[in-house]
Design goal:
TLDc domain-containing protein; alpha+beta; single chain; 31% helix; 17% strand; membrane; 339 residues; transmembrane; 9 helices; TLDc_dom
């Protein structure tokens, strides 16, 4: 029993020694692979260690001379081999120009921008096709999206196709990213107001949610008294009429429902237009949990919070694709964010 105890004791000490050596080597590799300040600190530590591990001998001038033993050299070789281990394990930081290029090539991988497109940013070719008012408005809202420089088409008009979920999905499914534009009567007899949103993943009637960090909702701002008489008096003022509100809490539930028997649900509550029998035109909105409240700290896209309203019109616009082009997100999408 005494022999077993001695073996166990020395085995335990040996394991501690090996663990300590591994931790020290890994820590050295970690700190040396970091920013210049950490590199300077680790170099200083190595110099101190050399002094502690070396013996002194008299030099010709009587000064102490430090001799680096072979064991220390072997230690430095080990550290050199492990240099940059963490940098190789993790992706390198993206350069600013590469990040800008990625944002332009894959805009849907980033949150929506508050910026609105101005007329001078729209090509002449696109301007020829943006003849309808809803197309022009949608264009202003689509800055930094995959539809920014793509022709738009109105695929669903509730007044033409019907105020029901079946007709809605028949027109919009598989068409990719979509813009929702709805109108309602303004408060205090101010005419109609626009609200809506952008669904980057579109619909496909596959059920479940369709996540996207690039989704947003919007509402029309109140006009100043000088321009309230003619809301289209100056087309250059159109972009400033709208306030975009970003998705919050990640991309989950950006489009909360993609059921064939249900209409629109941007978030479970941000903009809900069920298109159900008996309340076909009814819409509701609650901001905060899934889409931000914005600079005006609004609790709803509608001027009167906490009430359901009836829409006067509802249209869906999508991109125009050639026959040989693949429509992004035209089918089922993977949702790992909505639980």
């Amino acid at each position: 029993m005494a022999y077993v105890g001695i073996v166990y004791y020395w085995t335990y000490l040996l394991s501690l020694l090996i663990s300590s050596s591994l931790i020290t080597s890994t820590a050295n590799a970690f700190f040396i692979g970091q920013h210049p300040r950490g590199r300077r600190c680790s170099n200083a530590a190595i110099r101190i260690r050399r002094k502690l591990e070396t013996s002194t001998s008299s030099s010709r001038k009587g000064k102490a001379a430090f001799i680096v033993p072979n064991s220390s050299k072997r230690g430095r070789d080990t550290v050199s081999r492990l240099y940059g281990w963490l940098d190789n394990f993790l992706p390198a930081p993206m350069a600013e120009e590469d990040d800008s290029k990625r944002r332009s090539e894959f805009p849907e991988q980033y949150p929506a921008t508050y910026e609105l497109l101005h007329e001078h940013e729209v090509t002449d070719e696109l301007s020829k096709f943006d003849t309808m008012e809803e197309s022009k408005i949608a264009r202003f809202l689509l800055k930094n999206t995959m539809l920014e420089q793509r022709r738009l088409q109105t695929v669903y008009d509730a007044e033409i196709h019907g105020w029901n979920a079946a007709s809605f999905h028949e027109q919009v499914d598989g068409k990719g990213a979509a813009v929702i534009i709805a109108t309602l009567l303004g408060a205090d007899g101010e005419g109609t107001k626009m609200v809506g949103g952008y669904n980057p993943k579109g619909w496909s009637s596959t059920g479940g949610a369709r996540p996207s960090i690039a989704a947003f909702v919007f509402y029309e701002l109140k006009l100043s008294s000088s321009s309230s008489g003619n809301r289209n008096s100056n087309s250059n003022d159109r972009p400033s009429r709208f306030q975009k509100l970003k998705k919050v809490g990640g991309g989950g539930l950006a489009c909360a429902r993609d059921d064939p028997d249900y209409g629109i649900s941007l978030g479970p509550d941000a903009l809900v237009i069920p298109l159900q029998e008996g309340r076909e035109r009814m819409a509701s909105s609650k901001l905060g949990p899934y889409y931000e409240r914005g600079p005006e700290d609004r609790s709803s896209l509608f001027e009167k919070a906490g009430v359901q309203i009836n829409l006067t019109s509802l249209k869906i616009l999508t991109g125009v694709y050639n026959v040989d082009e693949e429509i992004p997100y035209n089918g089922a999408v993977l949702d790992m964010t909505s639980g």
